[in-house]
Specification:
This protein has four helices and 15 strands. 35% of the residues are buried. Strand 8 and strand 9 (261-272) form a beta hairpin. The longest helix has 16 residues, at 36-51. The N and C termini lie far apart (52 Å). The strands form five sheets. Strands 2, 7, 8 and 9 form a four-stranded mixed β-sheet that branches. Strands 3-11-12-6 form a four-stranded mixed β-sheet, with no helix packed on it. The chain has a three-stranded mixed β-sheet with strand order 1-4-5. It is of the alpha/beta class. The protein has one domain: SET domain (Beta-clip-like, Beta Complex), CATH 2.170.270.10. The structure holds S-adenosylmethionine (SAM). S-adenosylmethionine binds next to strand 5 and strand 10.
């Protein structure tokens, strides 16, 4: 900061550096037109937002790259893992704010649910982890062992059933370095979010990703089915006007009895992580989806792994399709040889 600036101007500058990162793009645009100082600070904030969609929540910055139009970044609230929406979320679309693009936004944020206006990225009104039943069962291993032919030498890994994998959880004795917590250490591959004329934003590899490597979780708000239906209806109406992309995913976990299934609704439209930008491919793309349950947790998380080696710059994709899907009429531009021409959409 420039100490030679007159006191009044310095105070305005300091105040603006604290407040402006909390504004959304329309608010930022309108305040930037009021004076030169605010114009320059807004420009810097926009540049910082463009350079890291993850707001330092992940291990590497995830930049927005746009060579097709003038959209610098897509505005949303970042959560590295799935969360419960605040009780007011269904009535107020402005329920959450998150500082994004402040001068110390390269500092890795601490996850908590308090709203501390430090200028660093943080989540407001967001409850994480243990608040949805993650306390309880956990292992007591000295070391959980390494993955081998027989899997981990840890009772948590023996909880794997069918399509669902199990990792150590919040009540286990081991820490984040435990080999049985592969999907809990943030996004560890380098990614970028690239604009496409027809598909909007999409996620591309910014390094070679090896087959089987963990890429990211699909993080967002965990909704009740009633709320998911309400939002899907609203999103369908908005999408029909064009220029709106929703990111509500419905996952069904089939229980061992085979007679029932658990429906998990993850909405990453307003609050999500980098996975909210992954586009659909009719041929299944290059990502494998796995349900991952942390020991003691009620609900599993949806995780993406590379289904084959993915070259640097290649777009990441998976199939949104499912036997229970209907067609919503949006054109598919996945470009695969067996493209159906229309995007699958959940019949909620
Ligand atoms: C989860 S979002 C993916 C990110 C989105 N492209 C964006 O710009 O925010 C899903 C939306 O992306 C677009 N999309 C995804 N895959 C597509 C494809 N293969 N062809 C055309 N549009 C696609 C559709 O608008 C869809 O509703």
């Amino acid at each position: 900061m420039d100490n030679k600036k007159p006191h009044g101007e310095r105070a305005l500058f300091e105040c603006a550096e604290l407040i402006l990162p909390w504004l959304d793009p329309p608010e930022l645009a309108s305040i930037s037109s009021t004076c030169k100082t605010l114009y320059h600070i807004s420009k810097t904030i926009t540049a910082r937002r463009t350079s890291d969609a993850s707001r330092a929540f992940e291990n590497f910055p995830i930049p927005f790259i746009n060579a097709v139009d003038h959209q610098p970044y897509f505005y949303f609230i970042y959560t590295p893992s799935q969360i419960l929406p605040s009780p007011s979320s269904s009535t107020s679309p402005q329920f959450q704010r998150q500082s994004w693009g402040s001068s110390n936004s390269m500092v890795k944020p601490k996850l908590n649910s308090s709203c501390v206006n430090t200028g660093r990225p943080s989540l407001e009104s967001v409850s994480l982890g243990s608040e949805y039943g993650e306390e309880g069962y956990g292992c007591d291993c000295e070391t959980c062992g390494e993955a081998g032919d027989g899997g981990f030498d840890c009772p948590c890994s023996r909880l794997n059933w069918g399509e669902i994998m199990s990792e150590c959880g919040p009540s286990c004795r081991c820490g984040l370095e435990c080999p049985n917590r592969l999907t809990q250490r943030e996004v560890s591959v380098q990614l970028k979010i690239v604009r496409d004329q027809r598909k909007g934003w999409g996620v591309h590899a910014a390094q070679l990703i090896r087959q089987g490597q963990f890429v990211c979780e699909y993080a967002g708000e965990l909704l009740t089915t009633k709320e998911a239906r309400r939002r899907q209806h609203m999103y369908d109406e908005l999408s029909s006007g064009g220029r709106f992309s929703s990111a509500l995913l419905v996952v069904r976990e089939h229980l061992p009895s085979g007679k029932a299934c658990l429906r998990i609704n993850i909405d990453a439209t307003r609050v999500g992580n980098v996975a909210r930008f992954i586009n659909h491919s009719c041929d299944g793309g290059n990502l494998l989806t796995m349900l991952m349950r942390s020991s003691g947790a009620l609900l599993p998380r949806l995780c993406f792994f590379a289904s084959r080696d993915i070259q640097e710059d290649e777009e990441l994709s998976f199939s949104y399709g499912d036997t229970r899907l209907t067609l919503n009429g949006l054109h598919c531009f996945c470009g695969s040889p067996n493209c159906f021409g229309i995007l699958p959409s959940e019949c909620t």
